[in-house]
Amino acid sequence: MAHQQASDQANQESSRRGGQQTTGASGQQIAGKSGGRTGTGNAGLEGAGKEAPTLLPPTDIYETKDAVVMLLDVPGADPDSLEVILEKRELTISARSMISAPQGYTPVYVEHREGNYERTFTLSDQVDSERIEAMLKDGVLRLNLPKAASAQAKKIDVKSA
Questions:
Q1: Which stretch of DSSP H or E encloses residue 123?
Q2: What is the pLDDT of residue 125?
Q3: Which fold is adopted by the domain 19-38+50-100+112-150?
Q4: Nearest-CA neighbor of 97 among 135, 54, 33?
Q5: CA–CA separation, 47 and 31 (whole Å)
Q6: Distance CA 23, CA 14 (A)
Q7: Of 151, 153, 148, which Cα lies nearest the Cα of 130?
Q8: Distances (CA, A) of 35 to 12, 42, 93, 121
Q9: Kind plus residue range of the DSSP H or E element containing 143
Q10: Which of 19, 50, 58, 128 has the maximal Cβ count within 10 Å?
Q11: What DSSP string runs through 5-27?
């Protein structure tokens, strides 16, 4: 039990620092961190004020033979404010989160809060940056990061002498 609590505390501490690194089966590395920006540092997000907290979207990363797939939970994200920017090897995702109740309803209890989603990942050079695709559906942002041809596993035929 004490070991589990220590592990949970270490995971929480790592999350608070905002840094993590994931290595896929093929050795491909994706390092993640929170944007670290607050207040007026949220460039590109209209209406971002000092009161809006920066929210770190939970992310799942999967690897297939041909690509790395990232799923970011961004409930309430305004599609018009969503930005996915790749600069050099840094992939930054940002969006404004809006709370809205369905028409005719009044919120009684709301756990979702307004804020600015922001997360930055450092990609390896094994990602084909020209073919990255992004799609937002039902509060989940799906990023497909195709592997560069040189990074894909190749079977080598062995000839006997």
A1: strand 115-123
A2: 86
A3: Immunoglobulin-like (2.60.40)
A4: 54
A5: 29
A6: 16
A7: 148
A8: 18, 9, 9, 9
A9: strand 140-146
A10: 128
A11: HHHHHHHHHHHHHT-EEEE-TTS
pTM value is 0.64
Q: Is the pLDDT of residue 130 over 60?
A: yes
Q: Residue 38 has which token pair?
A: 């607050």
Hunting for tokens 């770190």 — which residue is that?
56
CB 49, CB 37: distance < 8 Å: no
Residues shown for the chain: 161
Chain segment 77-92, per-residue pLDDT in tens: 999 999 999 999 999 9
**Over residues 16-36, mean pLDDT:** 48
Q: Helix (H, G, I), strand (E, B), or coil: what is residue 130?
A: helix
